[in-house]
Amino acid sequence: MDKLTFGLTMMVVGIGGTFLTLAILIWSIQILKKLFPLSAEDGNKSNRG
Amino acid sequence: MTEGIFEGLLGLTAGLQMLFTIAGLKNMVMLLIGGTLIYLGVKKDVEPLLLVPIGFGCLLVNIPGSELMHQGIDIGAKQVLDAMGPAAPEALQRMAKDDTGFLRSIYNMGIANELFPLLIFIGIGAMTDFGPLLENPKILLFGAAGQCGIFLTLLLALAIGFPHLQAVSIAVIGACDGPTAIYVASQYAPELLGPISVAAYSYMALVPIIQPPIMKALTTEKERATPMPAVKRSVSGTTKLLFPIVVTVVTGLIAPKGLPLMGAIMLGNFMRECGAVTRLTKASENEIANIATLFLGVAIGATMGAEAFLKPTTLAIFALGFIAICLDTVVGVAFGKIWYTLSGGKMNPLIGAAGISAFPMAARVVQAQGQRYNKQNFLLMHAMGANCGGQIGSVAAAAVMLSVLKGLGLI
Questions:
Q1: Residues B300, B283: contact at Cβ < 8 Å?
Q2: Predicted ipTM?
Q3: TM segments (chain A) (predicted)?
């Protein structure tokens, strides 16, 4: 594979892959926050801490 | 007897004699470079935990006659050679007589097999509170934007003639993440490990100098003064506990080649959040991280032999590393400006500059710059979120890169 093709492939797939990975993580975090919302106990722990 | 004394004295001055040869002059330059790194670490507080051992390792390996990076032969092979007796090849017999230098032993123990960067990552995970990121997960996108410099620099490195894997290793300086740069370089361009590591850590320390002019040039005064609301606590303990497991599984499935990096940082973070292994968490963020940092620094310094370091490629690596970090900031702030426009002026674009892995320096720079233009503005928690995103983003970018390389059949 020549250098230009390699560089462009890495750039497109690399940037796209990084954004995609982090977008999936954002979505996962949002699901986690919905499944396990902040409870009164969490709030108390925070106040004590 | 007089002759013996004379020859003995000559032996004592062998190092000094070697210093004043052509090869010795190169050693002198490297001794100066080592001294400069130590000076920067001790007197200027530039990443002292890394630059002091790197500088000292550089001194040790460049003293003429130093055999500290000599590769001897392992005990098993020595026994085989002994059994072969005179039938063993002469070159191997000669090697068998020499012991492996102590810096080479440290290098083999933790750099050649990528162990030290991963131990440091466990410590970083144990030290990091991803809370600010979890409060506003969308800010993780800044962590992706902040990695674009890696890929743009890769194109530049290829354009100026670096082979594929060397170009990838150099570009990872743009992750602004020392252990990631060392991890990738030690696997795919070990001959460039010294300059890449020194460039990565030097530029990380220079973030407060490199970023502000770029941030100012790319934003208007109104944009810089954009106020951000206070961060409200919205994340439960369970979410914080499950976060490292979810990140490990998701990134491991997408980019398995980066699993050691992400797995190590998330192991440290899981130990911190679960609270059940306080001793291990404390050991990871203190003793283990400190010992690994010391060995890592000395071993990297030891790769800075004159022959390997004093090359035009070293200057090119430093230039490309600088460009990479500038491009990270440019793309991060540009991404912030897009967000500012799309949100109707609710996102301060300066926060985009914090989407790199230099933690918490980049977040502090954003806070300081934001307050310069609006004294009532407190960007720190938002910037910390973006900065945590940068830490995850840098590892994700490296993981994606390695997996693409594997997909292309280059590794």
A1: no
A2: 0.88
A3: 6-29
Tokens of A43: 């709030």
| A:B CB pairs within 8 Å | 119
Q: Is B45 left (phi over 0), alpha (psi -120 to 50) or beta?
A: left
Closest Cα in chain B, distance from residue A47 (Å): 11
Q: How far is B376 from chain A (nearest CA, A)?
A: 26
Angle at B299 between CA B296 and CA B301, to 5 degrees: 105
In angstroms, the CA B107 to CA B126 distance is: 25
- Whole-number Å distance between alpha carbons of B229 and B71: 58
Closest CA to B179 of B223, B142, B128, B213: B128
pLDDT at A20: 95
Instruction: Say whether B396 and A18 touch across the interface (CB within 8 A).
Output: yes
Query: Measured between alpha carbons, how far is B119 from B285 in angstroms, rounded to an integer?
Result: 10
Tell me the shortest Cα–Cα distance from A44 to chain B, in angstroms.
11
d(C-alpha B86, C-alpha B157), whole Å: 49
Q: What CA–CA distance (Å, rounded) separates A48 from B99?
A: 58
Cross-chain Cβ contact A17/B404 below 8 Å: yes
Report the chain A residue with the minimal C-alpha distance to residue B130.
A29
- The pLDDT tens digits of the residues spanning B273-316 come to 999 999 999 999 999 999 999 999 999 999 999 988 999 999 99
User: Are A20 and B254 an interchain contact pair (Cβ–Cβ within 8 Å)?
Assistant: yes
Tokens of A5: 């093709």
Joined together, the tokens standing for residue B351 give 């926060």
What value does the mean pLDDT take over residues B252-265?
A: 92
Asked whether the whole model's pTM tops 0.90, one would answer no
* B11 vs B272 pLDDT, higher one: B272
Between CA A14 and CA B256 the distance in angstroms is 14
Chain A residues close to B138, C-beta within 8 Å: 26
B4 DSSP 8-state letter: H
DSSP secondary structure letters along A4-48: HHHHHHHHHHHHHHHHHHHHHHHHHHHHHHHHSPPPHHHHHHHHH
Phi and psi torsions of B389, nearest 5°: -60, -35
User: Any chain A CB within 8 A of the CB of B253?
Assistant: no
Q: Report residue B27 as tokens.
A: 């050693």
Instruction: State the pLDDT confidence band at A8, using cuts at 50, 70 and 90.
Output: very high
What confidence score (pLDDT) does residue B205 get? 84
